[in-house]
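Continuing the series of single-chain predictions for the mutant panel. This is the parent chain; the variants come on the following pages.
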Amino acid sequence: MQKLIECVPNFSEGRDADVIRQITDAIKSVEGVSLLDVDPGATTNRTVVTFVGSPDAVVEAAFRGIQKAAELIDMRKHKGAHPRMGATDVCPFIPVSNVSWDEVVACAEKLGKRVGEELKIPVYLYEKAAKDPARSNLAVIRAGEYEGFSKKIKDRQWKPDFGPAEFNAKSGATAIGAREFLVAYNVNLNTKAVRRANAVAFDVRENGRVKTEDGTPTGKPVLDEKGEPVRVPGMLKNCKAIGWYVEEYGIAQVSINLTNIDITPVHAAFDACVESASKRGLRVTGSEIVGMVPKKSLLDAGRHYLRKQNWSEGASEEELIDIAIRSMGLSELKPFDPKEKIIELKMEASSPKKSLVKMDVRAFCNETLSDSPAPGGGSVAALMGALGASLGGMVANLSAGKRGWEEKVKFFSDWAVKAQQLKDELLFLVDEDTAAFNKVMAAFALPKQSEEEKRARADAIESANKYAAEIPLRVMETSCRSYELLREMAEKGNPNSISDVGVGALATRACIEGAAMNVRINLAGLKDEKFKSDVSQKLQKIRGDSEAEFQKINQIVEAKLNKS
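Parent structure:
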């Protein structure tokens, strides 16, 4: 599945639209990067840019943006309300999906090294990328700002992590880091009173409120042995919150910053506000997400609210997102458009790539039937596997909803969730198989005039054919995992759906046999004998396992059909 990292560089220019455009054009010039937002501020004289992409793509795009900023921005002339120390003041990397912290930190280090060596700009690593814990706090690094760095950088304690230990008068210094995704989130209340919204905010935020002797907000503070006020912690970790009145909507809100959505997800903040408001005679009427969120935030929320209903969590991504929007009232103040608010969906919507899985059934069949060689057997095999997993998941969901089987909901729900995951992986491979074929065609189209070109072309063809063999092999491996699901459903699922299990098993078997044919035809043209041997052995094992699993499930299906 696609690895996505968000990058949010802050450039010290918020007034000159032409300079800002040139910087963002440099960022957009990298293939595989999606520019999500450009937010200039005249008073701060600073522009916050948000873009996402694969790890390699975001590093390259960030470097080009920093390079262009160094060319166009002269810090000797810069004035603005926001603290700053360089033309590119900060450049954090933030995990969005399918990436580890090690990968995100590696991006920060790779970019820092390039900026330091190629652009001669002093670079300091911060937050999770910091080599020195004393430098993890950005405010500590930036203390003294641009004007103080000519002296600060001479101190051995402030030797940069990358780049020269010399003051760069034109570009200043840059902080590059890795940090958690921050979500700005507002919860709507049925009151206009800021005081009452603050009471809810103090209940939920990590910092809580000051403890008083009589327990009232206006009472005398309780002090510790150092004379500092004792605080009563709030309900949520990694949560900052305050109450305010929004004139535009005529309501008070709890304005929240969630600084680690793995620890405190959006739905936990919503539920905490509901609980606090209810105790105070208030009602939460809805909420709003400011900016964008990773898809996982709404998928987790959708599953959470299905779980609260004691219902199967094995819903599609689209349905989970819709449940999350409705459960948290995200469209109360203005429509919540998933394609504009969810990072991955915004990327998909702006991508020029044609997706087979976005077609309706007739269009897919028409495309397959046309005189184009792709999509072909590989994509169709992957689609059959997705349908096999979907049928297994359908039986799991029907079984979870069967009257009298309420105590079995979690068992079937867990299987339905696995079915959704298998279906999504196989649908991804429907498109990826066609992409692999296109890579082969692109390799054959390379020039072959000189000896060097011939060697490069031969290498590209070999690499593309390997990938074209690896994709259907992945289809086989993924689809084979559906057998466990189908066997469980054959043995324990709703008996009225036994024929659906049988069709699912047949579709899975057809997927694996069809994908195997695509592996074999792509191996035929390869010169790497070890690669061919290794893949062939895997192929034979998967086919053998598949046939054995199919026969077990088929026997159960036939036995139950004969009894009906």
